[in-house]
Design goal:
alpha+beta; Arc Repressor Mutant, subunit A; Beta-Lactamase; disordered N terminus; disordered C terminus
């Protein structure tokens, strides 16, 4: 009986392996094996050394290296047959580290802000044409009419928190992001006036208070967080139910402390040596 059971299990394992391979991109996995061939002790390698370490044939390794060179993650060392990683490879880790550092800096500020105004507060950064919510603190167990969680992304052009960031970007960056947002399937209410006018007012006032464009009955205050050069590293947003909080009430209760919170985050980023987190 044992041999029969053993024989039956082989096709199952093989099928599982085939299914696993069909659901993954093997060429991508091979590319990472090439990158992982480099170490601190062996930071310059020849094609044959990389092929051996990555357990790939020379032809595949050659194509992978050419692709990684074109993308800027690997460079050819002049007058040699060796390759090395470029500093661009560090960007992958730095982005993750920067976001982790930002969250650790931002969360206590948001908690203090929420304790003062008793409304939900969030911090978001620009990611491509979207804003990415890195941190969120709710007031008690209050639930709002929108499910914003850490990691949620929404188009920057169609949200107050995104617009407060865009207002302080160079004009060509805003145009690029606005063009990208045209292809999104995200549904929101139409802006009541052109985006350029909205951004101009935010630049003048330093904040925006508006009804949410994608959640009914929600009023939003958004304030940009600027670095020492006036570049927007992110933004704080305050969300309050419109039924119990008029625009004037939200401005009276939350604007001053939110502006202070934004400045405190900017100072913390400067003191920690954190850099611009935008892509």
């Amino acid at each position: 009986m044992a041999p029969r059971n053993s024989t039956k299990s082989e096709p199952t394992n093989s099928a599982d392996e085939d299914k696993s391979q069909r659901s993954t991109v093997q060429s991508l996995a091979k590319g990472f094996r090439v990158l992982e061939a480099f170490t601190a002790e062996k930071d310059e390698l020849t094609l044959s050394q990389i092929a051996a370490k990555a357990d790939l044939d020379p032809g595949t390794t050659y194509r992978m290296l050419n692709t990684l060179v074109d993308l800027g993650y690997v460079s050819r060392i002049p007058e040699s047959k060796r390759f090395s990683l470029t500093l661009k490879i560090l960007n992958l880790g730095f982005h993750a580290i920067a976001h982790t550092d930002l969250r650790s800096l931002v969360r206590p500020v948001l908690k203090g802000l929420v304790s003062e105004i008793s409304e939900a507060a969030s911090f978001a950064v620009l990611q491509g044409a979207d804003v990415l919510y890195l941190e969120r603190v709710r007031a008690g167990i209050t639930r709002l009419g929108v499910d914003i969680r850490i990691g949620t992304t929404v188009p920057a052009c169609q949200t107050a928190v995104g617009q407060s960031i865009l207002a302080f970007l160079p004009e060509h960056e805003v145009e690029r992001i606005e063009a990208l947002s045209l292809s999104t399937s995200f549904k929101s209410k139409a802006l009541s006036r052109p985006l350029s006018e909205v951004l101009e007012k935010i630049r003048t006032d330093g904040y925006i208070i508006t009804d949410s464009l994608f959640a009914e009955g929600l009023r939003i205050l958004a304030v940009p967080v600027l670095d020492i050069d006036g570049y927007p590293v992110g933004a704080i947003s305050i969300a309050a139910p419109a039924v119990r909080c008029t625009t004037e009430e939200l401005e009276r209760r939350a604007l001053s402390v939110t502006l202070t919170a934004a400045k405190n985050i900017g100072r913390a980023l400067l003191a920690s040596g954190s850099v611009n987190s935008s892509p």
